[in-house]
């Protein structure tokens, strides 16, 4: 496993396992499978409803807690200093741990400055090893970097070959924030897994389109957390460290970029309303 060093010196695996849309009933087994095939980072969230299953799997795995990098996220309904503070303790209990490796603000809505203050406090108290954000577009990220006491270590945003976030990446780099991808396969949209550029490059390396894409991100300094409920795919998605893409192959994949979300824009007022209405 390769690691990236965050802006506070903490090491984070460059490939982790994401558990969004992994049902609570299968999550514990999936996380155990992921740890067994070699994952050492797990990405969950308060809103996924499976933090307890992640915690149970880590406890059962037999792998020392300090060898696993656990990420979770504070949901909008827990925004604001007091609620966020209580939610951090609730996440710690569900995850059966006395520290979280990385805590992110899930969405850039509601009183996220209050949330961030609670996170800074928990960070200083040793409950969190690193803190950061998710879905912060460059304007809000820069604002937080300029006015918060602790610079966010990570920004987790939609990133895949069709939406590479190149400008946002440069802003993150400028402020020392690690760019983490969510939806590295665009959840299969746009015929991701049969894309001709990805499959033909894959053929040359005896790798799948999924592996080529993941390799591309990692070679572009983007951390990834692919999700799969199938053990063989979990292993496939981790097996990207025995080949490298050439400059020409990197350019071909760069050219797939449409720099547009395949999901939704966080700038869209209807999305802000929709997120606010979600009861999680
Ligand atoms: P992904 O882009 O990781 O796609 C997951 C889909 O790809 C699933 O349908 C999976 O199917 C399939 N798949 C996985 N591996 C392969 C493979 N090798 N070959 C073919 N198909 C494959 O989507 P996610 O949205 O899950 O993103 C990853 C993680 O990012 C999430 O789990 C979550 O942790 C995080 N995330 C964060 C968000 C945020 O707002 N911060 C938003 C969305 C995600 P199957 O399971 O059947 O294998």
Could you explain how this protein is built, in words?
This protein has 280 residues and is α/β, with parallel strands linked by helices. The protein has one domain (3-277): NADP-dependent oxidoreductase domain (TIM Barrel, Alpha-Beta Barrel). It is built from eleven helices and ten strands. The chain has helices at 24-37, 51-61, 81-94, 112-124, 138-147, 166-174, 196-205, 209-219, 231-238, 247-254, 269-277, and strands spanning 3-5, 11-13, 17-18, 41-43, 69-74, 102-105, 131-134, 154-158, 178-182, 222-224. α3 packs across α4 (112-124) and α7 (196-205) packs across α8. The longest helix is centred in the first third of the chain and has 14 residues, at 24-37. 47% of the residues are buried. The mean pLDDT is 97. The structure holds NADPH dihydro-nicotinamide-adenine-dinucleotide phosphate. NADPH dihydro-nicotinamide-adenine-dinucleotide phosphate (NDP) is lined by residues 18-21, 43, 106, 134-135, 156, 182-188, 193, 208, 210, 225-230, 233, 236-237.
- Share in β-strands: 5-15%
The helix tally amounts to 11
**Class inferred from helices and paired strands:** alpha/beta
Order of helices and strands: EEEHEHEHEHEHEHEHHEHHH
- The fold-level CATH name is TIM Barrel
Helix content, binned percent: 40-55%
Strand order of the largest sheet: 3-4-5-6-7-8-9-10
CATH architecture tag: Alpha-Beta Barrel
Shape, principal axes of CA atoms: globular
Q: What's the count of strands?
A: 10
Specify the biggest β-sheet. Answer: 8 strands, parallel
Mean pLDDT figure: 97
Low-pLDDT windows of residues: none
**What name goes with the CATH superfamily?**
NADP-dependent oxidoreductase domain
């Amino acid at each position: 496993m390769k690691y990236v060093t965050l802006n506070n010196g903490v090491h984070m695996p460059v490939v982790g396992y994401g558990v969004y849309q992994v049902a609570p009933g299968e999550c514990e087994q999936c996380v155990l499978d992921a740890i067994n095939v070699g994952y050492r980072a797990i990405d969950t969230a308060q809103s996924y409803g499976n933090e307890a299953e992640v915690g149970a799997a880590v406890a059962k795995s037999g792998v020392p807690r300090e060898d696993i990098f656990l990420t979770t996220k504070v949901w909008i309904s827990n925004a604001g200093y007091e609620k966020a503070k209580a939610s951090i303790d609730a996440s710690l209990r569900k995850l059966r741990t006395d520290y979280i490796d990385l805590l992110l603000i899930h969405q850039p809505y509601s009183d996220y400055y209050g949330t961030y203050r609670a996170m800074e406090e928990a960070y200083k108290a040793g409950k969190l090893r690193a803190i950061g954000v998710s879905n912060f577009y460059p304007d809000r990220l820069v604002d937080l970097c300029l006015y918060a006491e602790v610079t966010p270590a990570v920004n987790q945003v939609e990133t895949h070959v069709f939406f590479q976030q190149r400008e946002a990446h440069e802003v993150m780099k400028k402020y020392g924030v690690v760019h983490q991808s969510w939806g590295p396969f665009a959840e299969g949209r746009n015929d991701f897994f049969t894309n001709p550029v990805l499959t033909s490059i894959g053929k040359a390396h005896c790798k799948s389109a999924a592996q080529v894409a993941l390799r591309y991100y990692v070679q572009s300094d983007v951390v990834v957390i692919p999700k799969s409920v199938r053990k063989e795919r979990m292993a496939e998605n981790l097996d990207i460290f025995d080949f490298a893409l050439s400059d020409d192959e990197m350019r071909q994949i760069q050219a797939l970029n449409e720099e547009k979300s395949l999901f939704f824009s966080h700038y869209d007022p209807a999305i802000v309303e929709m997120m606010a209405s979600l009861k999680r």
